[in-house]
């Protein structure tokens, strides 16, 4: 499996990196019957619901920005490839200046810590939206499921590890010069993508509005169990895919395969990916 894909966009160099891959079960899409899922898979010539765990390395104005960091070892031996992907492009963890978390789910932030709980990027500031930080810092999880308690504990460990190098931003504030947060509510309260603009060229990162491309691009009404507010996430997904198709924007996201840059076009009652 390829670990990276690089593209020059204006004055920026953007490298998509994958930490690994995974296969979802149909039960993770609780509002969609399994027969409908199997039909979409068959139409795409697929047998499994595949996903990737992606990060993005951006070289901007002499600085290195890493957006998300994968699940590290949490999901087995098919993951934890981000250090190898960074090594392939000649970057060491101590060279990263800024780490941005689109949201605090484990498959995006576990890789921000070593197995011993230290910052994996020892010289980087960690940037998170204030709304996302507030949600995971709250004591609301005492009566929550074990899974949610574990996720909150990990998020709080990440915040603590970066300490005074944690920078909170507004929903549409700058992450770095030319890189702006893009609010995409629903998956989590402060869930965010980002928008890169460099020398008149634009790239959008769609965060986690799509976890299973073979299903949720073709039918954006399909929600996943990881959405904290599935209805809001569905509205966000439909709105952003419509914008991407209308404006023919180049984009990527946290769970697209192979890793790759995409455009999207309308198809039947949904959308399909097309070559950029």
UniProtKB/TrEMBL annotation:
Taxonomic superkingdom: Bacteria
SMART domains: Lactamase_B (SM00849)
Record bears the keyword Nucleotide-binding: no
Gene3D superfamilies: Ribonuclease Z/Hydroxyacylglutathione hydrolase-like (3.60.15.10)
Record SUPFAM superfamilies: Metallo-hydrolase/oxidoreductase
Annotated InterPro entries: MBL_superfamily_lactonases (IPR051013), Metallo-B-lactamas (IPR001279), RibonucZ/Hydroxyglut_hydro (IPR036866)
Similarity-based family: Belongs to the metallo-beta-lactamase superfamily.
Annotated protein name in UniProt: Glyoxylase, beta-lactamase superfamily II
Organism: Roseicitreum antarcticum
